[in-house]
Amino acid sequence: MASSTLKVGLLGAGYILQAHAKGVRELPHASIHAVCDLSRARAQQAADQYGAANVFTSVDDLARSDCDAVHVLLPPHLHADAAARLLEAGKHVFLEKPMAIGLEDCRRLVALARSRGLRLGVNHNFLFVPAYEALRDSVRDGRLGRVDHVGVNWLFGLGLLQAGPFNNWMLRSPENLLFELGPHLAGFVLDLVGPPEELRALASQPLDLPGRQRVFRHWNAVGSAAGSSFSLNLSLAPGQPDRSVHVRGHAAAGAVDFARNLGIRYKSSSDNPIFDDFAVGRATAAQAREQAWSNIRGYVRETLRKSAFSNPFEQSIARSVAAFHAPGTDPLDRRVDGEFGVQVIELLERIAEQSGARQAVAVPTSVPAATPVAAIVEASPLAGAATGRALVVGGTGFIGKRLVRALRRAGWHVRVLSRSRASAEVELEDDSVEVVEGGHGDARILDAALEGVDVVFHLAKALGKRWDDYVRNDIEPTRQLAEAAMRHGVKRFVYTGTIDSYHSADPSAVIDGSTGVDRQIESRNLYARSKAACEALLSGLHRDRGLPLVIFRPGIVIGEGSPPAHWGVGMFYSDTRVDYWGDGANQIPLVLVDDVADALVRGASVPGIEGQAFLLTSPPLMSARDYVAEVTRLSGSRVDARPRPIWRYYASDVVKESLKHLIRHPNRRQPSLRDWACRAHRSRYDSRRTSEVLGWSPASTREAIVERGILPSVQHYMR
Fold first, then answer.
1. Which listed residue, of 63, 116, 195, 502, carries a Cα 20 to 30 Å from 264's Cα?
2. Residues of the chain with CATH 3.30.360.10
3. 247 vs 264: CA distance, rounded Å
4. Quick one: which H or E segment has residue 626?
């Protein structure tokens, strides 16, 4: 590569862009010159964040640019075509793993790069983690002796299997999960012992998902290479994470937790087993302690300087990026070279073939066939319905899917506005609904979506790290949706707020539908503020312009599809470790998701309730302690639950935010004791007025909450 400043382009503005961008910014001889994504808004946002001068929305435009090198950060099935076009345009190409889907495509890319005299590399995450590099050096310099066995584990629950979105590329074919996550394992084996000679593989624990998709949660492979044996273990089931490499050598053994950047090396030093066990244990503990302190010091230091080395994942990617772009390095570090990427795909192809997963793609006949979903852009007039015609915004979410089903059962004709048609087609496969693709902030899309609609259900929400994110993605689109609904003469506009907007820290207070949002809402978290701001905006439109508004504020919603480790109950650090919001003894405002959907349907047609707000909670039935006890009983796994005073959450937040203010972090904010105190929901919630006005009957016994809420949640998550 040229010795002058290297102009780097980033193709794909998804989550992995951040790690690659930070890595490039660490290089004194390179700069981020362009960002390309189908979404100009996403590309522009990334370009602004990382100082790129150019924004493109097509690979061809990027190929015609003056970039010297391009990082391809697209979904895997798009890698081969994009990389080929960029190589043909004379760009060096660095691919995010996997290199491509299909061995022949990978080989063609290597040949093309070689014929053009260009670099072609692949980033295999974690191969440059310092703890792994130390283990690697121990293998190479003989300190471990001749390698007998290598074991690699990626035992890490994949939330995608529980909560979706189910139109993700990883779920479209059984082997896709292997090609997405398997490079982590294959890369370690190939780096330590080389290509396998013998191989056996098994795919097990099948799981059938919406869209008639089948995946396997367990993949296991064993084999031999260069006189050593190896084992690869991939598990996507919920459980304690274990992402590790183990090497047994003739002279010593070593192990690395590569996700935590912790490694140890151990060997016998005495022929007395008692003293040897003591010596090995002491040495192992000393190594772990030293690395833990080194890691935390490094984390604080690198966070303060906003570098790419604040966690092992980003640190490894940054070092991988540096290896690929290192000036004058020929040949490339083997771990980033395209030839190594080919070997990774070849090994994964063999595992997929040996496992038989490709032949086990048919979903059992007990799974009902999908009902076709009519995906539309220009909405056709809605057919007549026994009850009415509804538009659901946010209809593919946890509550939204239940609402769509409840509306259909009640005789409504339903149209769903979704940003992803493909996602809606999968999520709503059993519902005869129309789908309009687009966002509720797009006036053209809204006019099509609202044609012929009687009632609008607004369940969409936004996520963000800054207030501007919520203004742009939640508050402003809500205004546009409401104004469009009024233009189209809808009969009712149903909005779902949140109990998070209440001031609920006072144990002597009673909260019902007449209770307003927190008067000091500006001191609360961004989500609570955004929901309250949307309510205020809509209430103003109701008062001033006649928007037929009805507001619902659901409690802590549980049921099939909600995580058992519910953050409405406490701060869950893992599935089996939680700190309560306070002592966890007060009763919390639970509500079943099906009961929420039932209330929303009722709220669409009960006369004379415009301008009112309704609370959706069951009667006080369980404390956070009770909830955790039931999750423990039903899951068979003990949940380590501890009380934690609210002031301690606040104190930790003060320390964290002080550091962020010190370095002028863009997401810095003011800590709020009031906001932390409200998480315990110490006030008493009373939904009796909702029941009286709507004729609503939520679950009213502890047994019903457990059987219809907690049990389905645990069973769905642990399936």
1. 195
2. 130-295+322-359
3. 11
4. helix 624-635
Distance CA 242, CA 235 (A): 9
Q: Which two tokens stand for residue 638?
A: 């003990």
- Cα angle value 77/81/82 (rounded, 5°): 95
CA dihedral 459, 464, 466, 467 (to 10 degrees): -10
C-alpha span between 690 and 552 (Å, rounded):
10
What is the rounded end-to-end Cα distance, in angstroms, of the chain? 51
Could you give the 3-state DSSP secondary structure of residue 433?
coil
Rounded Cα gap, residues 459 and 481, in angstroms: 12
Confidence of residue 278 (pLDDT cuts 50, 70, 90): confident
Residue count (the chain): 719
Non-local (6+) Cβ contacts of 98 within 8 A are 76, 79, 122, 179, 180, 182, 183, 341, 344, 345, 348
Tokens of 588: 């919390």
Joined together, the tokens standing for residue 408 give: 């259909």
Identify which of 697, 536, 523, 507 has the alpha carbon closest to the alpha carbon of residue 613.
536
Residue 556 is which amino acid?
I
DSSP string computed for 548-589:
-EEEEEE-EEESTTS-SS-TTTEEEEETTEEEESBTS-SB--
Instruction: Read off φ and ψ for residue 429, nearest 5 degrees.
Output: -60, -25
d(CA 651, CA 582) in angstroms, rounded, equals 14
Indicate the class that CATH gives domain 130-295+322-359: alpha beta
Q: 552 φ, ψ to 5°?
A: -120, 140
Q: Residues near 243 by Cβ (< 8 Å), separated by ≥ 6?
A: 126, 153, 154, 155, 156, 184, 257, 258, 259
- For residue 193, is it left (φ>0), alpha (ψ between -120 and 50) or beta? alpha
Tokens of 29: 């001889």
Nearest CA among 519, 514, 534 for reference residue 460 = 534
Strands 434-437 and 590-592: unpaired
- Backbone φ, ψ for residue 578 (5° rounding): -140, 145
Which of 685, 692, 686, 656 has its CA nearest to residue 671?
A: 656
Which burial class, exposed, middle or buried, applies to 402 when counting CB atoms under 10 A from its CB (0-12, 13-18, 19+)? Answer: buried
Region 301-320 average pLDDT: 79
If 0-12 CB within 10 Å is exposed, 13-18 middle and 19+ buried, where does residue 136 land?
A: buried
Question: For residue 55, with 0-12 CB atoms within 10 Å meaning exposed, 13-18 middle and 19 or more buried, which class applies?
Answer: buried
- Exposure string for 219-253, b = 16+ CB within 10 A, e = fewer: bbbbbebeebbbbbbbbbebeeeebbbebbbeeeb
DSSP states of 527-538 = HHHHHHHHHHHH
- State whether residue 678 is helix, strand or coil: helix
What pLDDT does residue 302 have? 72
| pLDDT number for residue 307 | 62
Enumerate the CATH 3.40.50.720 domain ranges in the chain, comma separated: 6-123, 374-561+589-618+683-707
- pLDDT of residue 435 exceeding 60: yes
DSSP codes joined into one string, 3-43: SS-EEEEEE--STTHHHHHHHHHT-TTEEEEEEE-SSHHHH
Rounded CA-CA distance 702/629 in Å is 13
Residue 308: per-residue pLDDT: 57
CATH architecture of the region 6-123: 3-Layer(aba) Sandwich (3.40)
Alpha helices in 326-397 (DSSP H): 338-355
Contact criterion met (CB below 8 Å) for 219 and 178 = yes
- Number of Cα atoms under 13 Å in the Cβ half of residue 413: 16
What topology is assigned to 374-561+589-618+683-707 in CATH? Rossmann fold (3.40.50)
- Closest to 396 in 3D by CA, of 368, 373, 412: 373
**Paired tokens of 295:** 């890691």
Integer CA distances (angstroms), 245 to 5, 127, 151, 222, 230, in order: 37, 11, 6, 14, 11
Which pLDDT belongs to residue 426?
76
